[in-house]
């Protein structure tokens, strides 16, 4: 398939991905990709292009963004691209904050989704992941459940597509998660791409990833692993929260314009 970019005329179909690290692709490490990550959205776009039709793709997501930042920075930019398909997941970073006004946040989310629907685009949203078995995030499970109830109501009211992450038991397998325990691994992003394509009713020729058997670890090894994780991942994450810095500071969107050049 010959690659072509946005300069070669309008695309018949236009997929725009909005959100935070989940949609940017953090955890799916790929040095050849913008921002050093690939991710499920890039994989979905590549499959759509392979399936045929004149698809253009833009990914405006940036890691660390809270919901209001996603709306302020990405919504108008997305609408300017006249999308025919939009995927959006936002609010996960808000849920992790010490204090969050969930009802107010979801009112703003609904307003944004209404604008996307009114543009004529097909809109696909996500429920949050069930973190009941994740020690660090177990305390936020109730917030995520409330978030999900709002999402399901909006799906019904606005006739949105839904990727129901909460009920995807496959992702309780921690081999599908990055060592930071916050983001999907390469294998996890591959499975998420397949889940999204299923919701879209699109052909999927992505190979299922092979998972290695988890190593048997002793109690001392588990303890060392926890200490290493705390030093390498938890401490930097907490430090960013305290200093009000973001992992996405100084980053730009991976694909701000419609393209078929997905590295």
Strands, helices and their partners?
Elements: E1 13-19, H1 21-24, H2 40-51, E2 55-59, H3 67-80, E3 85-89, H4 92-95, H5 102-118, E4 122-126, H6 141-158, E5 161-163, H7 186-200, H8 219-243, E6 255-259
Parallel strand pairs: 1-2, 1-3, 3-4, 4-5
Antiparallel strand pairs: 2-6
Question: How would you characterize this protein structure?
Answer:
Helices cover 41% and strands 11% of the residues. Strands 5-4-3-1-2-6 form a 6-stranded mixed beta sheet, sandwiched between helices. Mean pLDDT is 87; it is low at 1-8. The protein has helices spanning 21-24, 40-51, 67-80, 92-95, 102-118, 141-158, 186-200, 219-243; strands at residues 13-19, 55-59, 85-89, 122-126, 161-163, 255-259. The chain has 263 residues and is an alpha/beta fold. The protein has a single domain (6-259), classed as SGNH hydrolase (Rossmann fold), CATH 3.40.50. It has 8 helices and 6 strands, in the order E-H-H-E-H-E-H-H-E-H-E-H-H-E. The two termini are 14 Å apart.
What Rg do the Cα atoms give? 18 Å
Specify the overall morphology. Answer: globular
**What's the CATH H-level homologous superfamily?**
SGNH hydrolase
Number of helical stretches of at least 4 residues: 8
Strand fraction equals 5-15%
Q: What order do the SSEs take from the amino end to the carboxyl end, as H and E?
A: EHHEHEHHEHEHHE
Tally of domains:
1
Helix content: 40-55%
> How many strand units?
6
Class from secondary-structure proportions? alpha/beta
Low-confidence stretches: 1-8
The CATH class name reads: Alpha Beta
């Amino acid at each position: 398939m010959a690659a072509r970019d946005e300069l070669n005329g309008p695309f018949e179909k236009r997929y725009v991905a909005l959100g935070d690290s989940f949609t940017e692709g953090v955890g799916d490490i790929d040095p050849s990709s913008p921002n050093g990550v690939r991710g499920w959205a890039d994989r979905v776009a590549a499959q759509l292009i392979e399936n045929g039709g004149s698809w253009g793709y833009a990914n405006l997501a940036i890691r660390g963004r809270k919901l209001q930042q996603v709306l302020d920075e990405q919504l108008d930019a997305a609408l300017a691209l006249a999308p025919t398909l939009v995927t959006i997941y936002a609010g996960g970073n808000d849920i992790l904050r010490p204090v969050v006004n969930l009802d107010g946040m979801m009112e703003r989310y609904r307003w944004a989704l209404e604008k996307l629907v009114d543009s004529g685009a097909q809109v696909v949203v996500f429920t949050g992941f069930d973190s009941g078995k994740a020690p660090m995030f177990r305390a936020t499970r109730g917030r995520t459940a409330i978030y999900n109830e709002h999402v399901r109501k909006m799906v019904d009211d606005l006739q949105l597509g839904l990727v129901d992450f909460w009920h995807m038991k496959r992702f309780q397998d921690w081999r599908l998660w990055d060592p930071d325990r916050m983001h999907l691994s390469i294998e996890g992003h591959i499975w998420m791409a397949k889940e999204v394509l299923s919701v879209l009713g699109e052909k999927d020729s992505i190979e299922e990833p092979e998972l290695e058997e988890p190593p048997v670890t002793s109690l001392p090894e588990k303890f060392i692993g926890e200490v290493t994780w705390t030093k390498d991942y938890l401490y930097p994450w907490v430090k960013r929260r305290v200093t009000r810095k973001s992992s996405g500071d100084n980053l730009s969107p991976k694909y701000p314009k419609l393209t078929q050049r997905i590295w």
